[in-house]
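Our working data are protein records whose layout never changes between entries. Getting from the letters to the tokens is the skill we practise here. To make this concrete, we reproduce a full record directly below:
***
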Amino acid sequence: MTRDERLALQHQYWESQTRPGLTPTHVVEFVEEFGFVPLTAAPDLRLPALERLLAESASEEHLAGLHAVLERCVASHTVVEVDCWPGHKLYLPDELLPFCYALTGDRRPQRDVASQVQQGKLSRLAGEVYEALLASPPLSAAGLRDLLGAGRVSALAVERAVAELTPTLKVIRVGLDDGTPIWQPLVRIDPETTHAAEQISRPEALAALISKLLGTVLVATEDELAHFFHPLAPLSRTRAALRGLQAGRELVPESLDGEAAVRLAHHALTLDPPEPDGPRD
């Protein structure tokens, strides 16, 4: 298989699994189906984007409507926005969050954050922001600045501190307040996720995420999978998880432009023939 053939298969599969529409149900169904979803297409990620829900009418007005519906889903926690992938915001179904948290999150959140501040892995301000959010309703950067003392810290400094906390899911964005992001610790708004993550080993979590991604991209090389999950796990750990899935016969080998690749064992890769142009004379 060539990469062009894979792209054709992906688009055909994504279209077949997409029910266009602009309601929260449409957004949640799409995110649950594909697992790792950007709002708009990102060429370097090659994932199905939520804008597919707009079918052929992806005007600025329709994109704004889609964004508004997405915000309702984020606020209701039926879809989770994560900042684990540098330069990209991806939307995940709630069911995948324990697996991501098992790879990146803290086992004892409050104590671990304090320890990371002491070790210099987090700034002191990031630790203060986390403690403030634990004891407060969701707050924006400006709200945190006011709580911590507007005379000693700026909203920009608070935003930088929040950016230290989001890649490891210590805090997540839970909505907007007058167009400004508001944040809250995951352990406070969804303690079930953090408790569930405690029962999941890192190899198990990574295997589950790899399987979900392969269910979406259909075929991928080991390097592609390792680099996609690199923000969550070392390359060696992803390769070890792949070997475990192969040993369990959950993956089958494929070839992608001559490189070794894999797909899910239960996914048959067939490309439907093109529609005929019309009746011939």
Remarks:
- The mean pLDDT is 90.
